[in-house]
Hints:
Elements: H1 2-27, H2 37-41, H3 43-51, H4 55-66, E1 69-73, E2 76-79, H5 82-89, E3 96-97, H6 118-128, H7 134-138, H8 144-161, H9 169-186, H10 200-204, H11 207-210, H12 213-223, H13 225-232, H14 236-244, H15 258-278, H16 290-300, H17 308-338, H18 343-354, H19 370-373, H20 377-389, E4 399-400, E5 405-407, E6 410-412, E7 417-419, H21 422-425, H22 449-454, H23 468-485, E8 497-503, E9 506-508, E10 515-520
Helix pairs in contact: 8-9, 8-23, 9-17, 12-13, 15-17, 16-17, 17-20, 17-23, 18-23
Amino acid sequence: xxxxxxxxxxxxxxxxxxxxxxxxxxxxxxxxxxxxxxxxxxxxxxxxxxxxxxxxxxxxxxxxxxxxxxxxxxxxxxxxxxxxxxxxxxxxxxxxxxxxxxxxxxxxxxxxxxxxxxxxxxxxxxxxxxxxxxxxxxxxxxxxxxxxxxxxxxxxxxxxxxxxxxxxxxxxxxxxxxxxxxxxxxxxxxxxxxxxxxxxxxxxxxxxxxxxxxxxxxxxxxxxxxxxxxxxxxxxxxxxxxxxxxxxxxxxxxxxxxxxxxxxxxxxxxxxxxxxxxxxxxxxxxxxxxxxxxxxxxxxxxxxxxxxxxxxxxxxxxxxxxxxxxxxxxxxxxxxxxxxxxxxxxxxxxxxxxxxxxxxxxxxxxxxxxxxxxxxxxxxxxxxxxxxxxxxxxxxxxxxxxxxxxxxxxxxxxxxxxxxxxxxxxxxxxxxxxxxxxxxxxxxxxxxxxxxxxxxxxxxxxxxxxxxxxxxxxxxxxxxxxxxxxxxxxxxxxxxxxxxxxxxxxxxxxxxxxxxxxxxxxxx
Length: 524
Ligand code: HEM
């Protein structure tokens, strides 16, 4: 009897060793891809890096050691080459977003960001692409340009009115991007915010995404998805026990507060005042917001019907995607230009914006117009270099293919997760000499064609950032106005300390500074 039990135990052990160690290392189709064994055997090795907030930097270090393809988990491979970039993220590549993105569903509804399938995504994108095109963003007759120019005026007025703002730009830049994206999505009447003009309720909308425990919630949501869902769906006594034991990574309500709740409120307000019966005769012309465009489409009877929750989900996601990204980039740009070592770049930028003729500035406020700020080569180089070194979404962008495919000489079976990151692409020393040095002028050299191919802050192909032109217009118009009027320098307390932002669950900062200070945890 004993010997049967021992035999069974040994057989189970051998089976487990085969499945958990031998197979991933020696028989898996990915076994030839280089990388440390611990990462190839278990997904928890990478999850641990994630927990420590060093996932992206660890993957980067693995690329430096193992080359352009690294196995980072039993079923996940990271790449860092232009050929892989084209195969995975090129237009029409057929690669889909993975389940990872489903944590950005809002109200249980998918949106542009979270659709995996190419067709579903393309259908939704068709509805939005024109509104986000460069010509629409810079058109005087559409919503974005006047809105951004007004917000730039408000920002400069705020600098004059509340002197402390100029010493702590992080928050006020968030108010700027909040007012810009909400005005664009909802229009002034139905949810456009006035944080810059002092509305405390609107400023408070940001607390939710600034809550540091959101970082932990993101980690749980990715690595312990079923358990997290279980935790948050307990009711009654169990709910109290779970809370008492401190098992919740973030206190309830963890999700539909702040920006997400605001989207639903904006939608409800819009529907009540606009309503189907007077929809075609009222506000449409004066209020061409994204919400209104989607509503108009949903009433047209063409294609799949969008209901209120679909519209609110789409809008909430664009808000979340458009706030931290833009304001974090602006914050890094101003901070890096304020360092004494970069004084020369600030002076050259000031020279460029000083040369803008008065006729190219708005009568109200006297700040450069958005379409003029868009055409300043030095400013453009500064923003590119900021996005290269401090990309606000620097982490890997996971994708998978429905069919087997070869990438950089390796056969990648269908369903394998493949990814690349701006962080690693932007630090390739063969493409960007002295990669950790802030040098905007590298973008002004005639031979920067290769660098442009590696620049990936906004991703590429069909899933490239839809808000690119909106973000660029916000950033160029505000920076041109600030440096036309002011010089900036670092505060005493900031000396030797890099600002640090968190993206998903990692902290990013300037690696050349001795220390960093985390400014905010973000949910995106
Ligand atoms: C500096 C500013 C910004 C940067 C660097 C940035 C970067 C990115 C990146 C890298 C992606 C792809 C993410 C992935 O696939 O994992 C993305 C997608 C997206 N971004 Fe942005 N973004 C910025 C601003 C904005 C703004 C202002 C909006 C406003 C609407 C926005 C809306 C979106 C949306 C909706 C997607 C999903 C697009 C799709 O799947 O088709 N972004 N962004």
